[in-house]
Write a structure and sequence with these properties.
The model has no long low-confidence stretch (mean pLDDT about 95). The strands form two sheets. A five-stranded antiparallel β-sheet has the order 1-8-3-6-9, with helices on one face. It has a four-stranded antiparallel β-sheet with strand order 2-7-4-5, with no helix packed on it. With about 280 residues, the chain is α+β, with helices and mostly antiparallel strands. The chain is built from eight helices and nine strands.
Length: about 280
């Protein structure tokens, strides 16, 4: 799956209250479903594995995967979304299924969407327990509100909200599968902020190592691993980006701008600028 072409179609988005004791018989669906447990509890079986679902949990159902659920001793409030990740010509015509796989005619089997595969994530779980569910909950309810508002251009707004929701879900999955990543991300954010605060001069790895109290090779490795470029290259691009803004939106001479972003002369600045932007500084003036 190439998420560069993500074009979600939201089939259902609603806040459901299910009575206690109610059972959802085993079924499969053609599309994908995200269910959030707002209140109440349920025992949910997905592909033969049973989960005790409590408030703050997310259930992710993939196409063609058998699942059933039993609400426990309190009503279950479960806002949920049925969706296609990529719009297809038949997206508006597909209905939410309530049948088991053996009751679905073979001629309808091509309607099943493909299983989700995400780069850098080993496997998308059917059950995820959020440590801090407030953000996910807010995005989901904003999506449901927009979906049901029927306002002009609400379809565009719903797509935007869903992409925000899906991104948050993927990040939570990724973090849950990389438990040490949280502290690493805090460190990387600290380093990025330091680089962004020092665009008026050159910063080297030794300085970053001293600032973060870590080995410079380790810093270079984790920074490139997560951002795809070295911290020094990131800093260089950020300095040139600031210079470009000054060229476009101020009347400062090029010589002054080169000083503002820490280059000793116009020649070295122009060479660095062209290496990043592929055009000389005068192109933007």
């Amino acid at each position: 799956m190439d998420f560069n072409y993500l074009s979600p179609y939201i089939r259902v988005a609603q806040d459901s209250l299910v009575p206690n004791g109610m059972k959802l018989r085993e079924r499969v669906i053609f599309d994908y479903e995200l269910v959030y447990i707002k209140s109440g509890e349920a025992m949910t079986c997905i592909d033969g594995v049973t989960y005790h679902c409590i408030p703050g949990d997310i259930i992710f159902i993939q196409p063609g995967v058998p699942h059933s659920s039993t609400v426990l001793d309190k009503p279950l409030r479960q806002p949920h979304v049925h969706f296609d990740l990529f719009y297809q010509p038949n997206s508006p015509d597909i209905k939410v299924s309530f049948k088991p796989l053996d009751k679905i005619p073979k001629k309808q089997h091509p309607l099943f969407r493909e299983p989700v595969s995400v780069p850098n994530i080993i496997e998308l779980p059917s059950h995820l327990r959020l440590k801090s569910p407030a953000t996910f909950e807010k995005i989901l309810y904003d999506l449901i509100h927009e979906y049901n508002s029927m306002l002009p251009f609400s379809d565009i707004a719903v797509k935007g909200k869903f992409i925000e929701l899906w991104t948050y879900f993927l990040r939570e999955v990724y973090l849950s599968q990389n438990e040490n990543l949280h502290n690493t991300m805090i460190l990387l954010d600290k380093i990025k902020k330091y680089l962004d605060a020092n665009l008026d001069r050159e910063v080297n790895l030794d300085e970053l190592a001293s600032y973060a109290n870590l080995n410079k090779c380790y810093i270079a490795h984790i920074f490139k691993q997560h951002y795809g470029i070295s911290p020094i290259k990131y800093h260089r691009i950020a300095r040139i980006s600031k210079a470009r803004e000054l060229i476009e939106f101020t009347d400062l001479p090029i010589s002054r701008i080169s000083e503002e972003v820490g280059y000793p002369n116009v020649y070295s600045f122009s060479r660095a600028f062209k290496a990043v932007e592929k055009v000389p500084p005068t192109f933007y003036r």
